[in-house]
Amino acid sequence: MTDAALPVTGRAVERFAEAYLTFLGVEITKDGRRWTIDLPGDADTDLELDGTVLEITDNPDEVSEEALAIAPEGPFVERMLDEAADRAPLGSLSLTGDHVDIRLPPWLTDGPVDVADQGFTAYYDRQAICALFHVGIETVSEYQREELHAVAIDLNDHEEHPRLAETYLDLVDEEQWEPDEGKSIDEETLTDALGSAQTALKSELAPTVRDTRERATRAADVELDEYRQYVRQRRDELADEIDGLTTRIEDVTGTIDTASKQEGRVEALRKRKELQAELDNLRSELDDLTTQIETNFPEKRREIRERHSITVRLRPVTATAVSYERGDLDLTLRAGETTVSRSYGYAVGAGVMEKATCEQCGQQLTAENPLDLDGGKTVGTACCDD
Amino acid sequence: MSDDRLVEVEIRHEENDNISNSCLGSSSLNEHALTVQANRLQAGQPDSELRSLSHLDEENVKLLEHQVDAAHRALFEMDGKALLADEVGLGKTIEVGMILKEMHHRGTDDAVLILTPAQLAQQWQAEMLEKFGLDFTCNYDDDFRGFDAHDHIIASIDTAKSDRHRSTVLARDWDVLVLDEAHYVKNEDTDRYGLLEKLSYDYAFFLTATPIQNDVTDLYNIISLLRPGLFGTREAFHNYFVNSSQETLANRNELQNRLREVMIRNRREETDIDFTPRNVTTRTFSPSPAERDLYDAVTDYVRSAYRESQGQKLVLMTLQKEVVSSPAALKQTVERQLEGNDVQPEHVGPLKEILERVDAVETPTKIDRVQRITREARERVDKGRVIIFTQFRATQRELLETLDDKGYTTHAFHGGHSSDEKEEIVERFEEEGGVLVSTDAMNEGRNLQFCNVMVNFDLPWNPMKVEQRIGRIHRIGQDREVYVFNIALEDTIEEYVLERLYHKIDIFQQSVGELSEILTRLEETGRNFENEVFDRLVEAGSEVELENDFDAMAVDLQEQRDLADKLEDFNKGVFEGFDLGDSDD
Predict the structure, then answer these.
(1) CA A41, CA A249: separation in Å to the nearest integer?
(2) Is residue B279 within 8 Å of residue B484, measured between CB atoms?
(3) Are A148 and B43 in contact (CB < 8 Å)?
(4) Which of A16, A30, B300, B438 fits a 20 to 30 Å CA distance from A190?
(5) Which chain B positions have a beta carbon within 8 Å of A173's beta carbon?
(6) CA distance B8 to chain A (A)
(7) Are B88 and B209 in contact (CB under 8 A)?
(8) What pairing do the DSSP bridges indicate for beta strands A90-95 and A67-70?
(9) E strands in chain A
């Protein structure tokens, strides 16, 4: 899972605007930070641009009246991004050793050994899908996230290759990039690969989701706590009100018992009935609250927790079929006077594809246990280096 | 937290019709790459650069890396709700200034409320204007017409919570709330906390160097105002983070992890703040017999007039300050009093007597001695430009005349100049050298670090004002040792303030942050420094009583300072190892 979002800087927006307008066939005449636009009649765009002046600025509100602002969050830029974002969600490209520099693994670069010589021999092409997923994590509390992640999945074994995704993102962001189209894939393969990518993404999001759940749960607990306090307060108020009413009923009963006239007694009886009904209501409310307190508010708890529940949405927004070469990376390694040669399975863009191990003890080489040479053997610095 | 206690999660795998309906190969790779980039830009954080930085005048404010970083994180990583908890003296006000400037630049500051302790409100107002060009109305301004009448307000928190204003403060939806010295709002049972809890705001920045005052629960209260729910319920927080048998902190690492989402704390040793030494000398001189007579006459008059009616406090305080500044300053005020309509007949005699005694002073001792100090300073210090501060324009005029007569190159700076003129005066002083005689209108934003000698010709009774004067030359960027000379006459109020108060608590070596901490603590106990000084002077029945009273005040200040130091140490302990940046893991 790789974060694919780009910082929306003034420079990034300017670069994109120029690339997109050029793609539309627009002729741009630049005069400092003002661009005059000449849009061909058959240009495939809904943007109303012909004869317009575009102005590069930090603040969209500062441009002159006749001009449109090229600025982060500027309305014109938003429209342009909206149009471009839906334009061509599917594509294919080919990565060869000519496009991408060799990427050495950290278990080599973080260690004491120098690479005296390196060469990549391609044997065959593999294909992968590099897909961008929009990930939305929604809760009613404030911890909402909108993210874009890149996932690269090999079409043969459905393994995920994070470094391939990184290379892909770097390439797409390069200014001087002249890519080759790759091989096409069928719809079924695409659907399967997106399914695998979604599964990989889901498991990688798990810690984030758990973290968000814990926060949302805390927010729900706070809300329940406030409700609990309110209920307790109400219970105390009710108890006071009931005491008051009970006293009043006793007083009215006294009046009934001592009334000398029927009229007075009837009136007192009516009053007592009225008060008794009120008392019953309060008692019923008190019983209800007491039950809620004793059972720890099951309904309210359910209602609050439902409201704070989390929805995670995973939606693919683009998919690129990437053909990438696989073969062997031949390395000549040197430490002091010692030189050895080794070959490792390697893929363009994804790096070394096999787990390298210490030739002495078999422990895996990592950034923390990088490679060193011991006589003619490659060994781990941490596990077997004397 | 076990899974069954957590709220439910639903994961939705959504289709994208746009992808399903597209056909691979129907568009060029270039077009596809543009679609990919457009999606990436749409998902990106809106430009998280501090765009307004380039609009700040470096002459007015020098930004340090840790301050820019804090402003950036508070705005963009903490969604505009942050507790700025740098150690004392690292410039939290500057961080807020940057944040507010950026919000202004982005147009998200329609209604801003800054709440501060009473005696810091005007300093905030001056700093925001001079360093960041942000114009705030302060509740102490004459034209302050209430919390619903202005959009950018700096107010004392106690004014905001008062019965008179509370409802209007609460009736508004504020875009931004800034709370200075947030640790004074830690107690959930107080009116202040109640006000904050009910205030409606989108963004909030709380400042404190010591988030924890009495116990760790203070943190819960402050953070709950910023991010309700971050720490769950009060009971849960207490159970988890407080070791109840000893009432000490438990699970410190987890506490720090959670705080990282909302709190920024820079430590002094990790910043590049470096001040040159500050050399403070106090010279006390015997007044001439005529000056002694004058001082006694004024003090007697002030004491009896104050006992009679306390309504005249400000004028009386001014007279008491002027008599130790210069007879000229005093004369002007007394004459005005006599010319005014509200002078009481029984006061006319004593006031006229004061005027006669003013005329009896031939050459004021301080005026005479300041020339010697100026000459010495210029001889001893390389490129010795000297700035002399006085509180009064009349004293300033007299100083300028005397120094002009002696052949010094002089410059005058006071509140009557326009802002362009002030700019020119400072430039000329830098170019031509000599002596700048300034009133306290020399404000925060002026950068005088090319000068390293300062004379306090008279002394404000508010130590914050003294520090502000020194701060004009002793600031980041000053690369020479700074010399501060204080001048006072023996056995006067000025000597008491200097010797008994300022020196005893080492005020000349304290930073603004440390001082504000002491003064705010004093204010919390319901007192004001200037009033305390004045009250002690007028209420003392004898010389011995006066000395004892000032000693008692010094002890009180020392206690506040010790408490402030203790709290600072305690907070250092709690937040030791608090990560400055995002954790990589």
Answers:
(1) 90
(2) yes
(3) yes
(4) A16
(5) 37, 40
(6) 5
(7) yes
(8) unpaired
(9) 2-3, 27-31, 34-38, 53-56, 67-70, 90-95, 114-138, 145-154, 310-335, 338-347, 351-352, 371-374, 377-380
- With H, G, I as helix, E, B as strand and everything else as coil, classify residue B408: coil
pLDDT for the residue numbered B436: 94
Which of A174, A85, A145 lies closest to B39 in space, CA to CA?
A85
Q: Which of A18, A45, A58 to mutate to test the interface with B (most CBs of B within 10 A)?
A: A58
Q: Which of A51-55, A276-280, B43-47 has the lowest mean pLDDT?
A: B43-47
DSSP three-state, residue B132:
helix
Q: Under an 8 A CB cutoff, do B36 and A318 touch?
A: yes
B8 and A309 in contact by Cβ < 8 A? Answer: yes
Q: What does the pLDDT look like over A106-149, one tens digit per residue?
A: 999 988 999 999 999 989 999 999 999 999 988 876 556 788 99
> What is the 8-class DSSP label of residue B52?
G
CB atoms < 10 A from the CB of A352, how many?
20
- What are the b/e assignments for A320-347, b being 16+ CB within 10 Å? bbbbbbbbebebebebeeeebeeebebb
CA distance B53 to chain A (A): 12
Cα distance between residue B73 and residue B471, in whole Å: 28
3-state secondary structure of B507: helix
**Chain B CB contacts of A310 below 8 Å:** 7-10
According to DSSP, the β-strands at A310-335 and A371-374 are unpaired
Of B61, B80, B63, residue with least CA distance to B72 = B80
Question: Tokens in use for B7?
Answer: 């709220």
CA neighbours closer than 13 Å in the CB half-sphere of residue A228: 16
List the single residue in B with minimal CA-CA distance to A199: B13
Reduce the DSSP state of residue B565 to 3 states and report it.
helix
Instruction: Write down the number of H helices and E strands in chain B.
Output: 23, 16
pLDDT tens digits, B337-378: 888 877 888 888 999 999 999 999 988 999 989 988 888 877
What span, in angstroms and rounded, lies between the C-alpha atoms of B374 and B434?
10
A221 and B231 within 8 Å at the Cβ level: the answer is no
Residues of chain A with C-beta less than 8 angstroms from the C-beta of B38: 16, 20, 80-85, 87
| Chain B positions in Cβ-Cβ contact with residue A69 (cut-off 8 Å) | none
Q: How far apart are CA A385 and CA A378, in angstroms?
A: 10
Give the closest-approach CA distance of B304 to chain A in angstroms.
57
CA B532 – CA B529 distance, rounded (Å):
5
Amino acid identity of B354?
I
Write the CB contacts of A373 (distance below 8 Å, at least 6 apart in sequence).
A113, A333, A334, A335, A336, A338, A340, A379
For chains A and B, CB pairs below 8 A equal: 218
Residues comprising chain B, all counted: 585
DSSP tag of B499? I
Q: Minimum mean pLDDT among A247-261, B377-391, B506-520, B525-539: which range?
A: B506-520
- How far apart CA B476 and CA A321 sit, in angstroms, is 56
Closest CA to B281 of B109, B470, B445, B425: B470
Question: Highest mean pLDDT: which of B267-276, B428-437, B515-524, B536-545?
Answer: B428-437
Whether B27 sits inside 8 A of A81 (CB atoms) is no
**Are A81 and B51 inside 8 Å of each other by CB?**
no
Asked if A142's CB is within 8 angstroms of B8's CB, the reply is no
Query: Is B11 within 8 Å of A202 when comparing Cβ atoms?
Result: yes
Per DSSP, B496 falls in state I
Rounded to a whole number, what is the distance in Å from the CA of A220 to chain B's nearest CA? 8
Q: Is 50 exceeded by the pLDDT of residue B153?
A: yes
Q: Is the dihedral of CA A292, A295, A301, A303 positive or negative?
A: negative
Three-state DSSP state, A239: helix
